[in-house]
Amino acid sequence: MHLGGYVWKRSVFAIVTIFVALSFNFVLFRVLPGSAVSSLARVPHASAELKHALEAQFGLDKPVWEQYFLYLRELLHGNLGVSFANRQPVSANLLEAFGNTLPLVATGTVIAIVLGIATGIYSAVRRGTVGETVSTNLAVLFYAFPTQFLGMMLLILFAGYLPSVGMSDPFAVGFSPGEQFVDVLRHLILPVTTLILTLYAENTLIVRSAMLETLGEDYILTARAKGLPLRRIISSYALRNAMLPIVTQVALTLGSIVTGAILIEVIFSWPGIGRALYSAVLSRDYPMLQGGFLVVTVTVVLLNYLADLLYYRLDPRLTR
Amino acid sequence: MNRETLRDAPDGAETLDAMPALQIKGLNVWFNSARDRKHATESHVVRGIDLAIAAGERVGLVGESGCGKTTTILAAMGLLPASASVSGEVILDGRNIIADGESGIQPHRWRDIAMVFQGAMSAFNPVKTIGWQIQEALQFHDIASGAAAASRVVQLLGMVGLAEQDAQSFPHQLSGGMKQRAMIAMALACNPKVLLADEPTTALDVVVQDQILKLLVRLSEELNLALILVTHDLGVVAQTCTRAAVMLEGEIVEAGVVDDLYRRPQHPYTRSLFEATPNLADSRQGAEEVGTATGHLLEVTDVRTIYAGHRRVRKGATQTAAVDGVSLHVDQGEMVALVGQSGCGKTTTLHNIMGMLPVNEGSITINAQEVTTLTPRQWRALRRDVQMIYQDPYESLDVRFRVSDTVQEPLLIHRIGNSQAERMDMVNAALRDVGLAPEDYAQRYPHELSGGQRQRVAIAASLVLRPKLLLADEPVSMLDVSVRTGILELLDRLRHEHQVGILMITHDLSTAAKYADRIIVMREGRVVETGEPWQIIHAPRTDYTRQLIESVPSPDPRSRHVVE
Asked: Is the Cβ pair B117, A222 closer than 8 Å?
C-alpha cells in the first residue's frame, strides 16, 4: 500500500468514527428519561400551552430524524446550542474552558512522556541494578496511585507554599503581564505535577518492556558486533524499534488525558474543560454536556489519527 | 580422554605456515545465573578451547545445540552477556584483544573481525534500509563517507551478487537468501581479516544454502579471509572447510583436516555424528511391497488451492495458485516423502489434506471418503484416523500439561476408553511405543524434556488414537542430528508395526532418500517428479530434481561440489 492509500484509509476511518460518535451523542440525549420540556427545561408544572410553545421553540415537535438532521446542520455551522447555566453559547463556553485546559494538559503530558521515555530507557538498559529497581518500583507505585488521592495529598502538603486553587490570584489587581505569567505558572505547578506523576509511570513501564524486547533482538547483537557504541545502539536500534509499540500506547493514553484532567481540574478548581463538564453534570446543563462530549470524542479520534500517521513514518513494513 | 585426543590430532597452530590470523587459546566461559542469589549456579560452558586459523583458511566448528560453539565465537568478539565470565586469550596480530575488556576489543570489531549470524531474518534493523546499515558501518569505522561510502555499498552488494537498487530495500523486502547475502556484504564492509559465520545457512533451504556456501568460499579465497564456520551440519563443513573442530559439552573433542575426520574419526562422538548425518549415498533401493487391494489410504487428485484475500493480489492480476494440480497417494504402511524448497506448496498440500485449508479444485479421499466437502463436525470423527506431527516440538506441546495429560487429551476429546485406568493403559502403551518409559516420563512437564523427547511425546499423542494416516511436517528439522535418526527410525517402525501410512514433508532430500518408499518432488505448486528413492537420486528425470540433489551438501569432503 502506498502513502496516499494509507493516509486516505486512516482519514476515512477517522471521519467515520467521529460521525458515529456524533450520532451516538444525539441518541444518548434522546433516550434520557423524562420529557425534554419538563425535565430538561425545568418547567415541571407547565401548562399544556406552555409545553407546546416550548416544544415548538426548541424544535421538539418535529420528527426525530428531522431533529437529527437539524442537529447535524447546526453542528456544521459551529452551533452547539445554548448553555442552561449561563445562557451563553456552548461553543463559547467550551472554547474558553479548552483554552484553560490546554496549558495544563499540554505541559503535563509532554513532561510525562519525556520523563516516562527517559526512565523507561534507563530501567531497560540498566536492568538488574539498584537504580533500575528504584526506577521501576517507583513507576509501579505512581501507576497504582489514584489521581484524586495523589492530588489531595499534594494539596495538603503544599497548600501553604503554592497556590492550590484556580488559575490565577483573584486579588492580583494591577499585575504587569510578566507578573501575571509568573502567577499562572505558580498556579500550574501542583496540578501539572499531579498529572505528570499519574501519567509518566505508565509510559515508563511501557517503554521499559518495549525496550527490553528490542534489546534482545538479533539486530542488537549485529549492532554490537559492528562495533557501534552503546549510545547509538540504544537510539538507532533499540529505541527506534521500540517506538512502534510506544507510539500506539502513548496515543491510547493521550485519549484519556482530557477525561483524566477532570479529576485534577476539580481538585485544584482549574477552570478547564474537565471542570466545565463536572459542573454541567451537577447543574444538569445538557447542551453543555453534549458539547463537552463532542470535544472529548473529536480530540481522542484526532490524536489516534495522528498516531496512525506517525506510525506510518516509523514502520516501513506497514506500507512498503 | 579429551586432552589426549586433542594432542594426537594435528594441532591448529602447527599446521599453519604463517602467523594465524586469529588464535583462540585456552578459552573458558562460565555462565552465572545471578538472578537468584541464594542458588547462584555457575555452569562451565566452554572448557579450554584452542583454535587457530590462517588467512584464507576455512575452519568449521561443529557440534550440536548447547555444545558451546556459538558461545565460543561470541566470546572471541566480546559479545557475551554480563552474566558470563571469560578466561583465556583471543590473539589478533600478536595481541590478546580480550585482555582489556570492552575497550580492548571495541576497535577490532568489524574492522578486523566481522560476523554473520544465523537469523538473517532478524539480524538487520527492520526500520532502516540495507544500504543505510552498510553505510553506517563504513562511516562509523572511517572507511568512507558520503558519495564514496555510497559507491562502496554498491561495490559490496555487487560482490555478493545483489543489485544496486537493493541498497534502497528494507530488510523485509528481501528473501532469506538475499538478506544473508546483504549480511555478508555488510560484514565485508571494513575489509576484516576474520569472518565468523554462525550457522549462516541453517534457516535457508538447500538450493539457497548451496549458493551462500559457494559465495562464502569464493570470498574467503578472493579476499584471503579467515573464515570460521559454526554449524551443526557436517555436510556443510565437509563441503566448505579445510579443517574442522568437533565440540562436545564445551570441549573440542577432535580437530583436524575434514577428510581425516570423515575417513578416520578418532573420537566416538565424531564417528556417531557422521553416522547420524544422512547421506544421499544411503538411498534405499526398491520399495517394499505394501500395496493393498482395498485402494489407496489417501488419494489426492488434481488439487488446486489459491490463497484468497492476499494483500499483494490486486484485482485483475493473475492469481498464483499455492498448489496447482497436485496428485499423490499414500497406501497403508507406506512412507511417502514430499520434498521441495520453501514456498513450493508442500505445507499447503498438507493443510489441504487436514482440512485446515479449503481446496479450490480437485478431490482428496481418505479411506475412500471424500473429505474436501466435509463440514467441521463431520471432520471431527475422521480426525481419529488422520493425525499430524509438527515441526517444532518446542511449540507443539502445551507447557502446562504433563506428558500423560498431553497424550491423554486426544482420548478425552474423542471419548475413547471407559475409565481413567483404561485410558492410562493406552497412554502408557503409546509412550512405550515411542520409546519413553511411562514410569520415568509420564509425570514430566515439557521443559523437563529434550527436543527429541518432546517430539516423541508429540508422536505418542497422535499415536494413542491408533491413526491410519500420519502427516508429518518436517518432523526432525528442528532437532539435533544425533536425535534425528531415532525419530526417523521410530516413524519407520510405526509404519511397519501398526501399518500406518505416513506422508512426510521434508526439505532434506537425503532423509527422504533413506526412509521413504516414494519421493514426490514439488516445485511452485506442482509435482515435478515422483519415484522410488534410488531412481530419484541416481536417475532424476528433471533438471530441477538434479539441481536439488546437487545442492545437498555431502558429509564426504571428497564428493565436493561447492568448491569448483
From this structure: yes
State the Cα–Cα distance between residues B444 and A117, nearest whole angstrom: 43
Mutation pick from B92, B117, B127 vs chain A, by most beta carbons of A within 10 Å, is: B127
β-sheet bridge partners, residue A106 = none
**Out of A219, A224, A240, closest to residue B122 by CB:** A219
Q: Which residue bears the cell 591448529?
A: B12
Q: What would the grid cell of residue B241 be?
A: 572447510
Query: Which string of DSSP letters, residue by residue, matches B21-44?
Result: SEEEEEEEEEEE-TTSSTT--EEE
Contact yes or no for B59/B243 (Cβ under 8 A): yes
- C-beta of residue A177 within 8 angstroms of C-beta of residue A293: no
Tell me phi and psi for residue B419, to 5 degrees: -135, 165
Pairing of β B251-257 and β B298-306: unpaired
Q: Residue A227 is nearest to which of B111, B119, B125, comparing CB atoms?
A: B111
Nearest residue of B to residue A313, measured between CA atoms: B127
Of B453, B440, B439, B438, the closest CA to residue B393 belongs to: B453
Q: Which three three-digit cell numbers place residue A185?
A: 505558572
Per-residue pLDDT of chain B (564 residues; tens, 9 = 90+): 343 333 334 444 444 456 789 999 999 999 876 555 555 677 888 999 999 999 999 999 998 888 889 899 999 999 888 888 899 999 998 889 988 888 888 889 999 999 998 766 789 999 999 999 999 999 999 888 889 999 999 999 999 999 999 999 999 888 888 999 999 999 999 999 999 999 888 878 888 899 999 999 999 999 999 999 999 888 899 999 999 999 999 999 999 999 999 889 999 999 888 888 877 777 766 555 555 556 788 999 999 988 765 444 444 445 678 888 899 999 988 999 999 888 888 888 998 998 888 888 899 999 888 988 888 888 888 888 999 998 888 888 888 999 999 999 999 988 888 889 999 999 999 998 888 889 889 888 888 888 888 888 999 998 899 899 999 998 888 778 878 888 898 899 888 888 899 999 988 888 888 889 999 999 988 999 999 988 988 889 999 999 888 888 888 888 765 444
Residues β-bridged to residue B51: B24
Q: Is the alpha carbon torsion for A58, A62, A65, A69 positive or negative?
A: negative
Q: Is A59 helix (H, G, I), strand (E, B) or coil?
A: coil
Residue contact A221–B123, C-beta within 8 A: yes
What cell numbers appear for B193 in the block?
581479516
> Cα torsion at A185, A191, A193, A197 (round to 10°)?
-160
Total count of residues recorded for chain A: 320
Nearest residue, CB atoms, B117 vs list A218, A241, A314 = A218
Grid cell 415537535 — which residue? Answer: A61
Secondary structure (DSSP) of A160-174: TTS--SSSS-TT-TT
Q: Where are the alpha helices (DSSP H) in B141-256?
A: 146-159, 176-187, 206-222, 234-240
Please state, in angstroms and rounded to a whole number, the distance separating the CA atoms of residues B404 and A132.
42
Q: What is the distance between the alpha carbons of residues B467 and B498, in angstroms, rounded to a whole number?
A: 9
Contact present, B549 and B369 (Cβ < 8 Å) = no
C-alpha cell of residue B288? 517394499
Question: What ipTM goes with this model?
Answer: 0.77
Using beta carbons and an 8 Å cutoff, which residues of B are at the interface with A?
Answer: 34-35, 77, 79, 82, 106-111, 114-115, 117, 119, 122-128, 136-137, 140-141, 170, 172-173, 183, 186, 311
Task: State whether A236 and B126 contact (CB < 8 Å).
Answer: no
Distances in whole angstroms, Cα of residue A51 to Cα of each of A21, A63, A82, A284:
30, 17, 19, 19
What's the gap in Å between the CA of A145 and the closest CA on chain B? 29
- Cβ distance of A227 and B140 shorter than 8 Å: yes
Nearest to B122 among A218, A314, A315 (CB): A218
Q: What is the pTM of this model?
A: 0.80
Residue B185 C-alpha, separation from nearest chain A C-alpha, in angstroms: 13
